[in-house]
User: Fold this.
Amino acid sequence: MPFTICFDIGGTRIKSGVIAGDKIVQTNLSEVKDNSALQPILVKLERVIDQYLAEHKQTDQLAGIGIALPCFVDSKKNKILSHYVKYTDAAGLDLNQWARNKWGVPIALQNDAKAALLGEAEYGAGKGYRNLVMLTFGTGIGSGVMLDGHLLNGKDYIAGNLAGHSIIDYDGDLCNCGNIGCTEAVASSWSLPHKVQKMWAAEDQQELASVELTSFENIDFKYLFDQAAKGHQFYNKVLEDCLQAWGMALVNMVLAYNPDCIICGGGIMKSHEIIFPYFKKVLDQHGWINSEFVELKKAEQPEYAALLGMNYTITKPI
Assistant:
């Protein structure tokens, strides 16, 4: 049976899988210790692919290789376009030739958020919808958009990808992109420790005397939700501010793209029972289109949506 080998290359981890039909039959997870360059990562990918092929033995059934990356990607030419922060050498690599020379198969490249959206659209929460937005809350905030059944790209393949860098506080903090007040700078995993420290300093210190505090650097959203659930007023205040920021990003996506459904993924969706009611409230307060007209869904393939999206790209190109 024909199969694909697909990768989801993040900033800190690489997920890979062998997919036959629409079933993931084998997976692997490895760490990325240095995300400044892609060339050394290719050596790791070669070992994984060769190991998969040795185990499956049917090398003639390999239909192609799919790679999702945290970069802007011209998915028609299979060319990485961005030189930003992660894998800055990627734009100079010919991955089409790499795959042909090594294994004699085609390769498909895609931005990771778009790949995840495609995976959810075909195999998860987005089945049956033609107008979709996906927001992924992780280290940053990724996004993808599908309109009338087609992924939105734009002239430079960045359309719909930058919800995390929509500006919601023009007097806010500096973002890692160089702009001011981006959604990520207000509420993301990378900015959360600074946010908590800043809000802590602004509080009455006597009122904070009984509040639990790990080191600011170790604060993540699991810790924040756990502390808020214990009834700590300070952490509830921080959480409320984050929910407001995410809600504003949601409103911006609704106003920009008018989707039937918004799919939300990422680790914080383990607390979706808290988040979704807040999102609906924000949509009803601020959106031209309220929550009755936009479905909110949790990602059904939170771990492997991007792999499934790359498999679909190879086996059923759009």
The chain has a mean pLDDT of 92. The first helix runs from residue 39 to 56. Residues 212 and 301 are 34 Å apart (CA to CA).
